[in-house]
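Q: My labmate handed me this sequence with no annotations at all. I'd like to see what the chain might look like in three dimensions before we decide whether it's worth expressing. Could you predict it?
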Amino acid sequence: MGVRATAAGAMCFCVLAALAEATPAAETPAPVRIFDAGELTLVGYTVVKRLWVDTWRSAFWISTHDNAGAAIAALTAEAASLGANGVTNLYCIEDTGGWGGGYFCYCLAIKLR
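A: Here is what I predict for the chain of 113 residues:
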């Protein structure tokens, strides 16, 4: 019985190793570029999504961060996860006395044409 269990374990290991080699490695997405509002023409991109202000939930809860850099990093990560390769119309606000304080940013996630 011990030999069969060892053989079965070795076979499972070989199958798993083969599957791991066959699965392509995830590509690192290109960094999302931040464009100034007047830097692009309207025909130069397509809006993927308006980040963090496009739903009724933003009237009740907004994601805040300790500093503007962290808020921008969170926005660009969200844009990249949506397949955008840029953001524009980026605005950051410091909430000093509202729902908990911190920095809140919003923008348009875009895909360049």
